[in-house]
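Homework help board

Subject: predicted structure for assignment chain

Our instructor gave us this sequence and asked us to write out the predicted structure in token form, then describe one feature. I got the tokens but I'm not sure how to describe them. Can anyone check?
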Amino acid sequence: MARDYDLIVRGGQVADGTGAPLFEADIGVKDGRIAGIGAIGGSGTEEIDARGQIVTPGFVDIHTHYDGQATWDSRLAPSSWHGVTTAVMGNCGVGFAPVHKQDHDRLIELMEGVEDIPGAALHEGLRWNWESFPDYLDALDARRYDIDICAQLPHGALRLYVMGARGADLEPANERDIAEMRRLTAEAMLAGAIGFSTSRTLNHKTIKGDPTPSLRATESELMGIALGIRDAGHGVMELISDFDTPDPQSEFAMVRRIVEASGRPLSLSLGQAHRRPEGWRDILGMIGKAVTDGLPICAQVAPRPIGVLYGLQGSLNPFSATPGYKEISHRPHAERLALMRDPAFRARLLAEAAVEKTDPAAGRLTAFERIFPLGENPDYEPDRDQSVAAIAARENRTALEVAYDLLLEADGRRFMFAPFANYAYFNLDVCGEMIASPYTVMGLGDGGAHVGVISDASFSTYLLSHWGRDRETGRFDLPWLVKRQTHDTARTVGLMDRGTIAPGMKADLNVIDFGRLAVEAPHMAFDLPAGGKRLLQGARGYTATVVSGVTVYRDGEATGALPGRLVRGPQAAA
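My token output:
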């Protein structure tokens, strides 16, 4: 007997993505679209009981780095574990197309250095069955995923493709180079790129320490690329730059001119730099002025500190710079753990670390007043007195001794958290201000990247649980937070067919047991190609995640369904 709907989600409290108050309703899905909302009769081929739970649109994450993983893996975890149903990759100017065969290694070195993705995994996992960006899109389009993906054209790859070694050596692009970049950019947008990304930060280097190729791109080069996007008639721009310099106005003035000439929207990364903790306000003020002047510019912001994880299984720990640890760093985890439990080796490493601590190059590794135990129930807004330094003072021990012992907990599988942005004042008040701003959008989760030191793909879960429920002060209305991670992120990149629950919209949904919603402790997995490691972080509270009307996760477990596809370019509203 034919069913009335493919799926009915019954009796949930609906946060529809518009910011409107929660309301109780059934949601009927047919042919991948929302077909009905309200009291729905009839039956569905599948039904989900959502009574006592909230139902949201699927989350749209506009800042990920699955460019390599998406070529070999059908499950874009950990993002898909956190309610994300659409992921935009190709951020920060790094990616793998377009590419000449002789530049394969260069692009791997760039991705390994900028995004901390193991080179061995990329060498084994990437098939390189593409050259142009349209070829790369075709390779992605041939695969099936648990969620939808969108791809951006990366400036680093584009520059190397057009300029070769001159591009890697940061030489200025000439008129012929710029004309070719403009042509290839338009070609990429017309083939289905969602946008273009670039990096102008000194923090982005190849694994060999060379700067990212786009670091010193001139305004004329960036303008030519932006005009290529305009030529295509659609596409967004994403930029990361060192705006936290004493004089950011000239850099932002260039951004304004590019957006004004091209008419294309641009988002840029924004965080609180600890060395200039109020500098972010200057950038946001300039964005606000630009928006008032009619320019489509916004800032991507995070809901919690941006920081690194230190642990024996990670890429870094407070003893990484010591000669003793370097001697054993290549050994299997069990061997390193056994050695570090040896009292003699412990004494050696503590002595060496006390010397290294005076070296500015190792300063962040041992800045213990800003390093915190993360624990089994991660606390991303710890008090100052929870730091390793504070623990040491209370226990009349050295901070190095405390850190050493923390590394050995849970058989060496625990992590310490070292925030380097958004935590200058040891609280998240600045994140609250950024989230509340009309000139920002949620981003910067970096799913698929920094796999040995950062685990921020859980931002979407944390946004709702911390800012919508757990924080004692400054909480936000839950439906509004849902809007920020669905409607607002989708519209930022031109996806008008998702992000709200309404008839005709794409049936991407989350059913969430909000009282249970939480991020779990990060853990290290060794499941990348060539046995490469990556940090993963699960979630509790997701009863179901639905993509195009198909349930892909139930109670945190994959159903086996792979309805996700490459999304080619912007999508019109139903």
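Reply (TA_rk): Your tokens look well-formed. For the description, you could write something like this. The chain has a mean pLDDT of 95. That's the kind of observation they're looking for.
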